[in-house]
Amino acid sequence: MHLHAYQHRTGLNCETTCMRNVLAVYGIEFSEEVLLGLDGGFGFGYFERRDNGPDIVIGRQQIFSGQALRLLGVRARSFQGSGPAILLDQLKLERPVIARVDLSELPYWNSHGGAPFGGYFINLVGHDDGQFTVSDAGFPELQTISEDALNRARSSKRSPPINPERWCHVIESVCGTPDLARVGYFAVDNCVRDVLKPGIGNLGLPGLKQFAAGVRNWSYTKTGTVKMQLWSDGGVHDVAALACQLQSLGRAIEVFGTGGGLFRPMWSRFLHTFGDLVGDERLLDAAQTMTSSAQLWTMLGRNLLEVGPESSQAVLDQQLAALVETIDRIYQLERKAMDGLRSIRPPATRVPPAAAHRNTTSNFA
């Protein structure tokens, strides 16, 4: 059984790639940047580990909120449940299944259980002889996974508080045509509000401040050695806890499905695209500020990826000092961007005719 209407395409981010590819089955084409912007999940999250393993840093505040689909007039259904039956029922209805999993439990990633992350998404697009066919944003070809391995990946509890909890999502129907100029403002306003005043202090700008404080303590909290998978040979080795933390942060920023720069380039491109569409200088100004932040995040991530198990203590201390300085600069830029978009609403004047004419799905794709 395979969903022939589904076209596998790689992408920048697992969640937005999954949404983009599933929407295409229903004849709806949007870029990942637009889906990220409409979903309102952009932001920041910081979760300290109680041991000396690497703290978790993410560039989104919500995981599959469903807001983008609702704003696009798409009726979706979310469900939980173990085992293959609940998934097979949806595939029999010709519906691709967006499944949330622990990345480290996907055998074809060959991570050997290292770096657990329960906020990863894959599309299930077929099943045959006890094996599910997987469309994964990180691979140019379709992958396969056994029913048992998939259940382990969906049920993993190895990355609290970001465990997959067996969540899955399907699109049931397309209900209407979106007015992007209107829903875009709603999405930006909702996102900015959540970044400035999140429900918990680990998220948004408060979370970024917590992260800055946590980084300053890593010399004392990240001591001894921890297990880490090295990309040089694929094996799991004992490495200095601080080296593991710094390289893990580099991977979170640049490698693990953020589009590079911890989602900042993607969100700044959304603001540019939307700002051009509606002719709003506030959006364009914020986009430029976020581009500056994105450049710092990218530089930071690439530098941290150079940290290795052989790095001396002097090199680790130097990297840590640069990290502290860069995070402070990033905070100021992102505070400026969010303050500039605070309580943003459509301008009182009408949208210029040229911009109104461009208000089509194809211009956002």
Automatic annotation (TrEMBL):
Residue ranges occupied by any Butirosin biosynthesis protein H N-terminal domain in the UniProt entry: 13-136
Span of domain DUF4872: 148-340
InterPro entries given in the database record: BtrH_N (IPR026935), DUF4872 (IPR032369)
Region: Disordered, residue numbers: 344-365
Compositional bias of kind Low complexity: 345-358
Originating organism: Massilia genomosp. 1
Protein name: DUF4872 domain-containing protein
